[in-house]
């Protein structure tokens, strides 16, 4: 493992390029823009420089004489370096660009280089990192922009979402109903350079077919009966920001064609308008459907699918990450207790066990509804088994009856020694600590809390 010098947003940029003409051009352009620069003619040289010099951002060509720019990126990320990284790929190698973002690049540039674009990309990446560092801690304490998930697949999802958020490409979010697709879309928007502009969400299944075009693109006065004024569409309302198209699988074929055109041309035409208007919107689409099947059935356009699915993110269903349930339960109890101005001090072990054992076909939404209901019904500060919806209780009862006697101490409702939420939290922290072999940094990362907070909790024990 190579030891890396720390990075700071104000440290020099490192340009890695074996073509001396391009190297000079980049150096000159970036120095003119006020950045200090270091150069390397190979990835090996770059690693040597990075081991002793502080660097804010690496801009590297993919094709290099020894190890490639992508291998350099991989090596850095494997070594735990979070230095900014912009990849330069040859024209027509979009696969490489996608690959690089997946591997942890912040952005990519395509040859022939547009120098203005280089400056903008460098500025954007450094600015984004500066903000991310500033807001990192509080955001992590409440999950990823409110999305709770300590399991490895969720951490990988948050990492991918953060990377994709920085690009301008459309994103497709896949996941069963209730997995948090809209939450993720909002998180991507909040992580993106468009965070200050509007996030507009629309459920494509909820707009009647005949109104869809006008809803999306707006209309001119007199375009149809009832069009008494000019009206903006969703694309105009989301100007500068992100447009979230939920249930995209429900969009009519006619509108799919128009959306594809809007994505390709970056213009839209209001109903009844003569001319096209430019748009500046990032599309985030989501579906719980299997779009490939929809294509086979002739319901979804394959060209639109390919345009959207280059950058797709899949949210795993809750049953694939049962380790997330416990923290979701404690967070959701706290959320709904606060909303209902109630104090919940304890959860009955049998209630917790029932919540942990259930497979959640309706995913987090179903879990949240169960917890919200239980908080409403809870009395004397105790969330008990009887407060849960019947289907959870029944399943748990059946399991309990079939369990060999003595196997499940904690699930015996007659046991009076119920742990408090605080105790549940402590046990959970211990579980994660054990799983990481006592590694406190990893434990804090998995728990999504600052290391400071973890030390404090451990001291309290
Ligand atoms: N990981 C999570 N952490 C906290 N809350 C979550 C999480 N996932 C989902 N939720 C909550 O579950 C509910 C459903 O989430 P959301 O509407 O984003 O799901 P969805 O996948 O878009 O559902 P649908 O496909 O039915 O539209 C919301 O109340 C959301 O706050």
From TrEMBL:
Modified residues (4-aspartylphosphate): 61
GO-annotated molecular function: ATP binding; sequence-specific DNA binding
CDD domains: AAA
Highest taxon, organism lineage: Bacteria
Domain Sigma-54 factor interaction: 147-376
Biased composition, class Polar residues, residue ranges: 405-418
InterPro entries: AAA+_ATPase, AAA_lid_NorR, CheY-like_superfamily, Homeodomain-like_sf, HTH_Fis, P-loop_NTPase, Sig_transdc_resp-reg_receiver, Sigma_54_int
Keyword Phosphoprotein: yes
SMART domains the record matches: AAA, REC
Protein name per UniProt: DNA-binding transcriptional response regulator, NtrC family, contains REC, AAA-type ATPase, and a Fis-type DNA-binding domains
Organism: Billgrantia gudaonensis
């Amino acid at each position: 493992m190579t030891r890396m010098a720390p990075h700071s947003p104000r440290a020099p940029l490192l340009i890695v390029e074996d073509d001396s003409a391009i190297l000079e051009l980049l150096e000159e352009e970036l120095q003119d823009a006020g950045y200090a620069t270091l150069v390397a003619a190979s990835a090996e040289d770059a690693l040597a420089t990075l081991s002793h010099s502080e660097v804010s951002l690496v801009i590297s060509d993919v094709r290099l004489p020894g190890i490639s720019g992508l291998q350099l990126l991989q090596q850095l990320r494997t070594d735990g370096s979070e230095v900014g990284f912009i990849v330069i790929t040859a024209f027509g190698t979009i696969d490489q660009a996608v690959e690089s973002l997946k591997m942890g690049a912040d952005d990519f540039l395509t040859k022939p280089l547009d120098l203005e674009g280089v400056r903008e990309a460098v500025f954007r990446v450094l600015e984004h990192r500066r903000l991310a560092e500033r807001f990192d801690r509080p955001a992590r304490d409440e999950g990823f922009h409110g999305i709770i998930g300590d399991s490895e697949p969720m951490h990988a999802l948050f990492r991918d979402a953060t990377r994709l958020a920085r690009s301008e490409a459309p994103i497709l979010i896949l996941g069963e109903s209730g997995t948090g697709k809209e939450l993720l879309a909002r998180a991507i928007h909040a992580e993106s350079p468009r965070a200050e502009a509007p996030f507009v969400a629309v459920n494509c299944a909820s707009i009647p077919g005949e109104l869809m075009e006008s809803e999306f693109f707006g209309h001119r006065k007199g375009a149809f009966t009832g069009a008494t004024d000019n009206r903006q569409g969703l694309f105009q309302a989301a100007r500068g920001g992100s447009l979230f198209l939920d249930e995209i699988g429900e969009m009519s074929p006619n509108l799919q064609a128009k959306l594809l055109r809007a994505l390709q041309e970056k213009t839209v035409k209001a109903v009844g308008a003569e001319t096209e208007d430019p748009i500046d919107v990032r599309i985030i689409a989501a579906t719980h459907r299997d779009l490939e099947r929809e294509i086979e059935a002739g319901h979804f356009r394959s060209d639109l699918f390919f345009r959207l699915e280059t950058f797709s993110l899949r949210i795993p269903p809750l049953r694939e990450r049962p380790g997330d349930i416990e923290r979701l339960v404690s967070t959701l109890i706290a959320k709904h207790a606060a909303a209902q101005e109630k104090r919940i001090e304890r959860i009955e072990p049998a209630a917790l066990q029932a919540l942990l054992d259930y497979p959640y076909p309706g995913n987090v939404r179903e879990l949240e509804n169960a917890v919200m209901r239980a908080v409403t019904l809870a009395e004397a500060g105790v969330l008990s088994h009887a407060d849960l919806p019947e289907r959870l209780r029944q399943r748990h009862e059946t399991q309990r009856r079939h369990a060999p006697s003595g196997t499940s101490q904690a699930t015996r409702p007659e046991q009076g020694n119920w742990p408090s939420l605080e105790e549940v939290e402590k046990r959970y922290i211990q579980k994660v600590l054990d799983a990481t072999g006592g590694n406190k940094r990893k434990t804090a990362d998995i728990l999504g809390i600052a290391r400071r907070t973890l030390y404090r909790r451990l001291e309290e024990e």
